[in-house]
Amino acid sequence: AVVSTQSTGEPNTWPKEGDFPGSGEFKKVLNAGFTLRIKLARKLVEEIAAAIDYPEFPDKFKEAEFSSFYLKKYTERREEDNVSIYKKEHGYSMTAEDGRVLSIPSHTDTTITLLATYSNGGLQAMYKDEWYDVPSVMGSLMLMSGHLVEELTDGKLPSLRHRVLDIKTDRYSTPFFFNPSFHANIAKTCSGKETEVGKKFETFGPWQVTELHKDEPLLLHSTSLN
After folding, report:
1. Residue of 160, 162, 204, 196 lying closest to 179 (CA atoms)
2. 95 has which bridge partners?
3. What is the C-alpha separation between 218 and 221, in angstroms, rounded?
4. Which residues sit opposite 14 in a β-bridge?
5. What is the pLDDT of residues 166-224, one digit of tens each?
6. What are phi and psi of 33, to 5 degrees?
7. 15, 12, 145, 136: which is closest to 70 by C-alpha?
8. Is 144 exposed, middle or buried (0-12, 13-18, 19+ CB in 10 A)?
9. Which of 24, 80, 129, 163 has the most crowded CB, counting CB atoms within 10 A?
10. Who contacts 157 (Cβ-Cβ below 8 Å, separation ≥6)?
11. Mind giving me the DSSP string for the chain?
């Protein structure tokens, strides 16, 4: 993953020349992909703010230093493979309501996600309590909004519940998470109402650390921000 060292204190680990075919260009390509996505995300947030008449909304993303770019490979899974990552006490279940085998459980993201799935199937989104297959279009990026953004925008930008079916073969995706600045205020919505997360956290950074420990326990350790 490409993650800012300013927020996590943990530098990216890059491959060395000769580690694998193309490893010499790996860092250059990944940084270019990160730059493209963060520029696109900023523009989309500006357009969304104009559409919902909350012109101050982009101010929450001025630094966006907690934004991250992941390279993910999913192999065939069994439910017991994920119990140490997707914990029941965090609201996850690897048993789908309709009996489907999952590689990623039903969930919503937190803020703004730009996702590329290439030609890999398996992604499903919920609309009006029904699951629908999301087409995989090579060369495209899909935008998904999360539950924090839904709350900050007073519900004007709903979050998208989604899951990934186990397609019984290796599956690749590259999610980019465009997050507010570490010190962005999340205690109030854009209209000034108190948020649910604002009952415990005033700014984005400390709240995001708790979310990462729940959702990505292998990404951060207990002293990441010390």
Report:
1. 204
2. 101
3. 7
4. none
5. 888 888 899 999 999 999 999 999 999 999 999 999 999 999 888 776 656 555 554 54
6. -65, -40
7. 12
8. buried
9. 163
10. 48, 52, 145, 149, 150
11. -EE-HHHHS-PPP-PPTTSSTTHHHHHHHHHHHHHHHHHHHHHHHHHHHHHTT-TTGGGGGSS-TT-EE--EEE----GGGGTTTS-GGGT--SB-TTS-BEEEEEE--SSEEEEE-TT---EEEEETTEEEEPP--TT--EEEE-HHHHHHTTTSS----EEEE--SS-EEEEEEEE---TT-B-SB-TTSPBPSGGGT-SBHHHHHHHHHHHH-TTT--TTTT-
Interatomic CA distance for residues 103 and 108, integer angstroms: 15
Q: Which amino acid is at 84?
A: S
The token duo for 215 is 């959702």
Give the predicted TM-score (pTM) of the model. 0.84
pLDDT tens column, 5-60: 344 556 788 999 999 999 999 999 999 999 999 999 999 999 999 999 999 999 99
Q: Quick one: tokens of 166?
A: 């186990």
- In this structure, are residues 208 and 110 in contact, taking their beta carbons and an 8 Å threshold? yes
The tokens describing 27, both together, are 């860092």
Q: Given the structure tokens 């994920």, which residue do they identify?
A: 82
Q: Are the CB atoms for 65 and 34 separated by under 8 Å? A: no
Please, are residues 199 and 186 in contact by the beta-carbon 8 Å criterion? Answer: no
Can you give 98-110 as a three-state secondary structure string? CCCEEEEEEECCC
